[in-house]
Design goal:
Blueprint: E1 21-28, H1 34-40, H2 42-45, E2 49-53, E3 59-72, H3 78-90, E4 93-94, E5 103-108, E6 126-138, E7 141-150, H4 155-175, E8 186-191, H5 194-209, E9 215-226, H6 232-242, E10 247-253, E11 256-262, E12 265-270, E13 273-284, H7 289-300, H8 303-323, E14 324-328, E15 334-337, E16 341-352, H9 358-365, E17 373-374, H10 376-386, E18 397-402, E19 407-411, E20 415-419, E21 422-431, H11 437-454
Parallel strand pairs: 1-4
Antiparallel strand pairs: 1-7, 2-3, 2-10, 3-6, 5-6, 5-18, 6-7, 8-9, 9-17, 9-21, 10-11, 11-20, 12-13, 12-19, 13-16, 14-16, 15-16, 18-19, 20-21
Helix pairs in contact: 1-4, 1-6, 5-11, 6-11
The structure holds the ligand C=C(O[C@H]1C=CC=C(C(=O)O)[C@@H]1O)C(=O)O and magnesium ion.
Magnesium ion binds at residues 281-282, 308, 429-430, 443.
């Protein structure tokens, strides 16, 4: 709905209300490729873009530019910080009939107390933004909104300027000749601290057998070098084509793109429903349909993987039983098969208590035992001592929420941090008493596959 916002100079009581204003305006952009729109933002807005596909591909979101950036460096209060900043913005939102609710997109780091490197510079403990231009593709239709946050009194002129930029990006997205997404030429793959990882898994298994914890997720990273710089829109295009059953996310900051294809929902709040998923316990896909079926059946009946999975169901079930009414949890897991891997999977649903919002669920759930361990307070220190890497945003919540309380966060696994002509890939696995280091190592290779393939890497087997 096109409107010429005139800044509110008098509040309902007729008193002067100056300060922060938040306007949104939705344009019907007809049919538009979200990835083409993302690419159209390359020149002006590289480093300030976001890309999202939900798991069943009923929603794609693109954020171009930052109307406002919301960050927090607080180790403990980061979730409350983001909520307070977002609520303050939404309290001054001007949205008219026909305008879509503006979104806030971004993510959290896995562990603000474990930041041993500057690998993740530009990704603070909480990193969110209101997109200046927001594309949403849902129900087969594409909408583009312009969001404007301003303290000034020039909203009308600002909007005029933004409309022209938006119009040219829509035009470019519709008419540009898009070359088929090229994959980078990989010149090297470096397994960082491979022996340290194997040693750590052995050590942690011993500490679990000694009763220090019941489960601890240990991860590792590998570094890819390319002949030349890779372009974010091409990588996301590859991933979108190759990973049809996973969430897709891409979050830029400065010269970095954090991206991935994850099967793991953390939590969605949609029309008064809270939905999450327990995803833990893994095995590779078979080379034939019958081998695939055998491997899946074996996973469903494997004691080690079932125990790995049950820790996640217990914890998430506890959170949902205390945050929701009418909690629904199936009696046992089923298989979740995505392109490169199959998991034990238990969906959990409930009706949120009125005093619980999306960030309450994110804060309570993160990290689930699928990425941290059980008990959490024992597992996190063991991860800090044992992992030779900086998880940054790997394994943490990434997603979006809108001004009406709806939104969705996924767990940022099957992911990588791309910068120029290099990328760092992250993968881990749940370690329990009867874990075997070599088997966990092989499992991480299966988990590297989605991003390794999208980055042009060689896949073993
Ligand atoms: C820690 C990862 O996967 C988690 C999610 C699904 C299955 C898992 C597993 O079987 O170990 C992990 O808990 C990762 O992909 O890096
Ligand atoms: Mg596992």
């Amino acid at each position: 709905m096109k409107h010429n916002p005139t800044p509110h100079t008098t509040g309902s009581a007729g008193r002067q209300v100056s300060g922060l204003h938040f306007y949104t305006e939705t344009i019907d952009a007809g049919r538009l490729s979200p990835l083409a729109f993302f690419e159209a933002g390359e020149n002006e807005f590289a480093g300030r873009r976001f890309y999202w596909e939900n798991r069943d591909k009923t929603l794609k979101l693109v954020g171009i530019g930052h109307a406002m950036t919301l960050t927090s460096d607080a180790a403990d209060g980061r979730f409350a910080d983001v909520r307070a900043q977002w609520q303050r913005l939404c309290s001054v939102l001007v949205k008219e009939e026909g305008d879509l609710p503006p979104v806030l997109f971004g993510g959290f780091s896995f562990d603000p107390e474990n930041h041993p490197s500057d690998e993740w510079k530009g990704f603070p403990p909480a990193y969110f933004a209101v997109p200046q231009f927001q594309l949403a593709e849902k129900g087969g239709r594409t909408f583009v909104s312009i969001n404007l946050v301003t303290e000034g009194e020039t909203a009308a002129e600002d909007f005029e300027r933004l409309r022209l930029i938006c119009e040219s990006m829509i035009h470019e997205a519709q008419v540009m000749e898009r070359t088929p997404a090229q994959k980078p030429e990989v010149s090297a793959l470096d397994e960082l601290a491979r022996s340290d990882y194997l040693e750590a898994v052995g050590e942690v298994t011993g500490r679990i057998r000694a009763g220090e914890a019941e489960k601890v997720v240990i991860a590792r990273s590998v570094q890819l070098a390319f002949d030349e710089a890779a372009t974010p829109s091409s990588i996301l295009e590859n991933l979108s084509a190759e990973q049809q059953e996973s969430y897709l996310f891409g979050l830029e900051s400065g010269s970095k793109l954090f991206f991935g294809a994850t099967p793991e929902r953390l939590v969605e709040i949609r029309d008064g429903q809270a939905l999450t998923a327990c995803v833990a316990g893994s095995i590779r896909r078979g080379k034939t349909a019958s081998e695939d079926r055998e491997l899946g059946e074996g996973l469903l009946h494997d004691p080690k993987n079932r125990s790995e999975h049950q820790y996640v169901v217990s914890m998430i079930g506890d959170v949902f039983r205390s945050f929701c009414e009418e909690v629904r949890i199936p009696a046992g897991p089923r298989l979740l098969k995505v392109r490169d891997i199959q998991h034990l999977f238990t969906p959990v649903e409930g009706i949120p208590n009125p005093d619980k919002d999306l960030l309450d669920f994110v804060e309570a759930l993160h990290p689930t035992p699928a990425l941290g361990g059980t008990p959490r307070e024992a597992a996190l220190p063991i991860i800090r001592e044992s992992e030779r890497m900086d998880r940054g945003f790997y394994g943490a919540p990434v997603g979006w929420m809108d001004s009406e309380g709806n939104g969705e966060f996924a767990v940022a696994i099957r992911s990588a941090l791309l910068e120029g002509s290099g990328a760092r890939l992250y993968a881990g696995g749940g370690i329990v008493a009867d874990s075997v280091p070599e088997e966990e190592y092989e499992e991480t290779w299966v988990k590297f596959r989605p991003v390794l393939r999208a980055l042009g890497g060689k896949l073993n087997g």
